[in-house]
Amino acid sequence: xxxxxxxxxxxxxxxxxxxxxxxxxxxxxxxxxxxxxxxxxxxxxxxxxxxxxxxxxxxxxxxxxxxxxxxxxxxxxxxxxxxxxxxxxxxxxxxxxxxxxxxxxxxxxxxxxxxxxxxxxxxxxxxxxxxxxxxxxxxxxxxxxxxxxx
Length: 150
Known about the structure:
transmembrane helix; 0% strand; mainly alpha; membrane
């Protein structure tokens, strides 16, 4: 009888170990899928931001062209160079939008973000630290109590 109990116990231990291994592998697979999904969502958001910049550049470029021609014509006709002054800030905006849409601004921003993460960790910390399960549950219970009392 003790031999049979030993074999049953051994079999149950083996099954338990296999179940734990399966759960660990399944958890890793689930985490990998979540990370891939989050990265794909981030890529889509960045692509939308770049697409928005390119579309905005078309409209702003048209405005800039008309404004530059009009202001230059007015400055020459009226012999007043002051009409050329708005071209300077408009040019800065145009160059920024071009850099965002087709240049290396996004790469430089990514590089700077990596530098901040590497060298300025303290600036990235959340007030009162990262939320914990306990702090969220405490807030949830307090909120539930608040709504029950009303």
